[in-house]
Amino acid sequence: MTRPPKPQIVEYRRHLLVCTGRSCVADGMDAAGLIEVGHKLMAAGVLRDSELRVKPSRVDCLGACRSGPVMCVQPDGVWYCGVTLADFDRIIEQHLIGGRAVDDLVFHRGPVAA
Ligand code: FES
């Protein structure tokens, strides 16, 4: 059996995981919210900027289904909950561009280094 070719992924600085699981959809990350998140990332220029490049991925569940919508920024190990679109503007400016977590939205940090 031949293996399929390995996918190519453009280098990125941060991986933004956006939960679109049932609970997070009920808390606001529905299809319209997800589209708006994409528009905000595009408008901020972080999808293309080679130094800031953010790779967004939607995930089915991050295992923290209370107080959604839940997002996680890796490799920083920063987990956000209850993220409104206005909060997401702050996450873009302060964290994805500025490199500092938005502490009042953080509910968890991890994984921790061994
Ligand atoms: S559905 Fe979003 S964390 Fe589980």
- Could you name the CATH class? Alpha Beta
Shape: globular
Distance between the termini: 38 Å
Strand content: 15-25%
Order of helices and strands: EHHEEEHE
Class per helix and strand makeup: alpha+beta
The largest sheet, given as strand count, sense and whether it forms a barrel, is:
5 strands, mixed
Order of the strands making up the biggest sheet? 2-1-3-4-5
The CATH fourth-level homologous superfamily: Glutaredoxin
- How much is the radius of gyration in Å? 15 Å
The number of distinct structural domains comes to 1
- CATH topology name, in short, is Glutaredoxin
- In the predicted model, the low-confidence regions spanning at least 5 consecutive residues are none
Please report the number of helical segments. Answer: 3
User: Residue share in helices?
Assistant: 25-40%
Explained architecture:
Helix content is 28%, strand content 20%. The chain is of the alpha+beta class. It has one domain (14-109): 3-Layer(aba) Sandwich (Glutaredoxin). A five-stranded mixed sheet has the order 2-1-3-4-5, with helices on one face. A hairpin with a 3-residue loop joins strand 3 (71-74) and strand 4. The chain is globular and about 45 Å long. The mean pLDDT is 95. The chain binds FE2/S2 (inorganic) cluster. FE2/S2 (inorganic) cluster (FES) binds at residues 19, 21-24, 61-62, 64-65, 68, 70.
